[in-house]
Amino acid sequence: MKIKNLGWYITMLILFGIVFYLIPKYQIDNDTKLLKNTYETVAYSRLETKNLLDYKNKQLISWNYTIDGRNYSKIKSQVNNIQNSEYYVIHYNPKNKEDIIINYEKFVLNGNYKKTNSISLKEDLFNSNRVFFEYSVGGKKYERRQSCELKNGIDLDKIYLVKYKVGKPEIAYIYLDSIQ
Fold first, then answer.
1. Of the four, 1, 57, 62, 159, which is 20 to 30 A from 79 by CA?
2. Looking at residue 63, what is its pLDDT?
3. What order of strands is seen across the sheet that includes strand 140-147?
């Protein structure tokens, strides 16, 4: 009797292992396909209230966008420190327009922006395509996290151009190809 139960437990353990391996792999493959496709539009963010079941340090963001004259809204959890009314390019599945991925490397300036310079710049040790930068507006320091395409690397000692939103300086973007 014990041998049959042991075999059943081992079989179930193997099946669960396969399922837990395949689900994340499918999601990564799906996201990669979406980023490579040419179906894209611009979406704006709206912060949602924190969910008790949400992971620590993550935000719930409602992404609002229009495709073919129809409005969509998709709630996603992420860690990029997004503010209300930020605009990013999203890629979507043309067969299921609610299947989206936000391209955090492609921000869209919507409204009035002014220029300032970065105060400091650090690479994110956990994500090689993300940087932390500080900038100052009206004597007040702000810190921001941004996803970037770091093909040529960055010089952490250089001062870079930062554009911040007039009236809401906590929204800002660094231009790593523009050394001041």
1. 159
2. 93
3. 140-147, 130-137, 113-123, 160-165, 168-179
* Alpha-carbon span 117 to 141, nearest angstrom: 11
Token pair for 44: 């704006």
Q: Do residues 156 and 123 make contact, with C-beta atoms less than 8 angstroms apart?
A: yes
State the DSSP string of 92-156.
EETTEEEEEEEEEEEEE--S-EEEEEEEEEEE-SS-TTEEEEEEEETTEEEEEEEE---SS---T
pLDDT at 1: 47
Over the chain (180 residues), the average pLDDT of each successive run of 10 is 66 72 57 77 86 62 93 83 90 89 90 92 77 93 87 78 94 82
As for how many domains the chain has, the answer is 3
The residue range of the domain holding 66 is: 38-108
Token pair recorded at residue 151: 């093909």
Which SS3 state, helix, strand or coil, does residue 36 take?
helix
- How many secondary structure helices (H) and strands (E) does the chain include? 1, 10
Residues 6+ apart with CB under 8 A from 155: 179
